[in-house]
Prior knowledge:
Layout: E1 3-7, H1 12-24, E2 29-33, H2 46-51, E3 54-57, E4 60-63, H3 65-72, H4 87-108, H5 113-116
Parallel strand pairs: 1-2
Antiparallel strand pairs: 1-3, 3-4
Amino acid sequence: MTDILYFDGKCPLCSHEIGWLKRLQSGQLEFIDIHQIDESELPFTKEILLQELHINAAGNWLKGADASVRAWSHTSVGWVLKPLRWPFIKTLVDSIYTWWAKRRFAKLYSCNSCLEHP
């Protein structure tokens, strides 16, 4: 079954990671740049999707570090990230990811008009 990864195509770091994922993935991962589709086609607002990485895994929506680990699970190196979801590490990883994601979003989209123009 194919997972659908929603990513921020305006973010240089995100685009770099997506480039790696596209090269390494096994063919079960579809990539959608949030800026390239109409908001009415999105399950959430564009702003929500841009705040954290999101993946639709067979109708199960994952975001943040969960989405990243799931996306990388479609590659031969995905096993390296699985420990990030272990209970005693997950809380720390999620806190760091949330802090980073909020900072990244504020830096790229400090004005609302930035969200509207591709």
